[in-house]
């Protein structure tokens, strides 16, 4: 048994702003919606699922917030948080785990919250931008061995493992809601985002600036910056990903991550607001241990 209990949740807010707090009768406490990550479950899926189960709200995840850790018996509970906005709301149904849901302004929410770490989370959120736009930079899924492909490289498709990765990515990217979908003009990049695009019913645009062999770092960076401020996902190649992440961080005055590279089917999500980088997170399709 791991010494760490992994959980995921959100600071869910709506116009006002007002913040969603839940009451758990078992503990007689008030907190933000959250819950344990199931075995084999991706943390993004867990965050969305827990919010919907505990509040009846289907969320769109915003910027990543600080992870909160605290002792729970002889183990440690680690909760990964995001900001989130409602995109669909059904009637709240009280149950044994959560019997009340309230929406409160910040000051009233602070007074109602039972735990200091939740108050600190709310205060930290209010110090940053409320609303952000995700800009996802995605490396295409697996597409077999290049040396075994005898036709034009732009026609090389995803292999069986890559198709499974593309299907998994559709659900993970959907956590951020509908996004403009832009791809390298190669089969493997297009196929990587096709399941997501079909799920959210948006077209896939091809872009030479993100296509290996047809671009350079300056062209790719210029095109990426032109998309900032609108929710978007870019499906491209490993060598271009590195340039985009490093260039974006430098342009916005942020520290470049020590390792900007991605494995296939991994992605960076930059949460942008008013020309600033509010948060940067990295994910793959597999659940973290």
UniProtKB/TrEMBL annotation:
Boundaries of every Nudix hydrolase domain copy: 3-126
Source domain of life: Bacteria
Gene Ontology biological process terms from the UniProt entry: AMP biosynthetic process; ATP biosynthetic process
EC number: 3.6.1.55
Enzyme class: hydrolase
One Pfam family this sequence matches: NUDIX
SUPFAM superfamilies (alphabetical): Nudix, Phosphoglycerate mutase-like
Hydrolase in keyword set: yes
The species this protein was found in: Actinomadura luteofluorescens
Descriptive protein name: 8-oxo-dGTP diphosphatase
GO-annotated molecular function: 8-oxo-7,8-dihydrodeoxyguanosine triphosphate pyrophosphatase activity; bis(5'-nucleosyl)-tetraphosphatase (asymmetrical) activity
Keywords: Hydrolase
Similarity comment: family membership: Belongs to the Nudix hydrolase family.
SMART domains: PGAM
